[in-house]
Amino acid sequence: MDKSFPTDQNDRDALFQRLEAIEAVIARHEALFAKEGHSINDSPETTDGAIHFSGQFENASGSISYSWSRPTHHLLEEAWDSSFTRLSALAHPQRGLILKQLLNDPCSVSTLCQLGVTSSTGTAYHHLNELESAGWVRKGRGGVYEVPTERIIPLLTIISASENH
């Protein structure tokens, strides 16, 4: 199937008509669910339990919205090894300081040292390598490290879930 945008006006009009029809069906379904006291998210997969998290984040680089959902049976049936590997990379106070800095303002190793976030470039690289191998940071252009967009809300969710409730 060709996924390029149609260049012919008639094809574009037909595409927009199909899109409008789909949106109308979705609106009718949402209205029906609301009237019956159900959520559009009610499905056999989620009515037996689900874990959801979402959030919005804004920094100097821009803003994002993110949401994630998993049925509880999926979480209970899958192995947790890779999740614990990712979590263990966070379990160091120095890495927390680095992540907090990168969330506020992505920067280089030398900037981390200049700001006093790390005491040396060796220390910075050690912790950044651990965070990078677990997927919490990535090195961008010019040696600037950042928290990948898809990891920002999960990271902040872990931090907020770790608060004293």
**Helix percentage range:** 55-70%
What is the rounded Rg? Answer: 22 Å
Given the C-alpha coordinates, what overall shape results? extended
Q: What is the top-level CATH class of the largest domain?
A: Mainly Alpha
Can you summarize the main beta sheet? Answer: 2 strands, antiparallel
- Low-pLDDT stretches are none
Strand content: 5-15%
Number of strands: 4
Termini separation comes to 50 Å
Number of helices: 8
**Which fold name is given in CATH as the topology of the largest domain?**
Arc Repressor Mutant, subunit A
Q: Look at the structure and give the mean pLDDT.
A: 87
InterPro entries: ArsR-like_HTH, HTH_ArsR_DNA-bd_dom, WH-like_DNA-bd_sf, WH_DNA-bd_sf
Protein name: HTH arsR-type domain-containing protein
GO molecular function: DNA-binding transcription factor activity
Organism: Corynebacterium glutamicum (strain R)
Care to describe what's here?
The structure is a single chain. This protein has 165 residues and is an alpha+beta fold. It folds into two domains: 32 residues; 116 residues, Orthogonal Bundle (Arc Repressor Mutant, subunit A), CATH 1.10.10.10. 55% of the residues lie in helices and 15% in strands. A two-stranded antiparallel ribbon has the order 1-2. The longest helix is centred in the first third of the chain and has 27 residues. The chain is extended and about 60 Å long. The N and C termini lie far apart (50 Å). It comes from Corynebacterium glutamicum (strain R). This is HTH arsR-type domain-containing protein. InterPro entries: ArsR-like_HTH (IPR011991), HTH_ArsR_DNA-bd_dom (IPR001845), WH-like_DNA-bd_sf (IPR036388), WH_DNA-bd_sf (IPR036390).
